[in-house]
Design a protein that fits this description.
single chain
């Protein structure tokens, strides 16, 4: 099949757009990787802007580090505080699960999901949409 002029132009346009997109993504990935390494956090999965991931990782690290019993941070306390922080900064309907062993299957709002581990704890933070029910 022979390429038409339109197909060639479209291909050139796609190639021209890709280099700039590649420059943005790696720099964000590198920044996030550096943050993770500096905080000794392992990012496992995410659908969240880098700035929000940064906030979640740093805030959780501060909660773990300031735990009264540094050897055994309280997962319920961390989950409650992280949820309250994200509700106040990014709006309601955040949910947080923190522990050493759990299984989940959740539906989340676009751009509102992160799963990471910090020391021996795993952290799942996600947002759901809230709609008012009117009768």
């Amino acid at each position: 099949m022979e390429e038409t002029e339109d197909m060639k132009k479209k291909k050139k346009k796609q190639v021209a757009q890709n280099p700039s997109q590649r420059r943005v993504a790696p720099s964000l990935e590198v920044k996030l990787a550096a943050i993770s390494i500096s905080l000794n956090v392992r990012l496992r999965s995410s659908d969240m802007p880098v700035s929000m991931q940064d906030h979640a990782l740093r805030y959780t690290r501060s909660l773990v580090d300031t735990s009264p019993d540094a050897a055994r941070p309280n997962p319920s306390h961390i989950a409650r505080e992280l949820k309250k922080e994200f509700d106040s900064v990014y709006g309601p309907a955040w949910h947080c699960v923190v522990g050493t062993s759990f299984g989940t299957f959740v539906t989340h709002s676009p751009g509102g999901f992160v799963y990471f581990s910090i020391d021996s704890l795993s952290v799942l933070l996600f947002k759901t949409e809230v709609k008012l029910v009117r009768e």
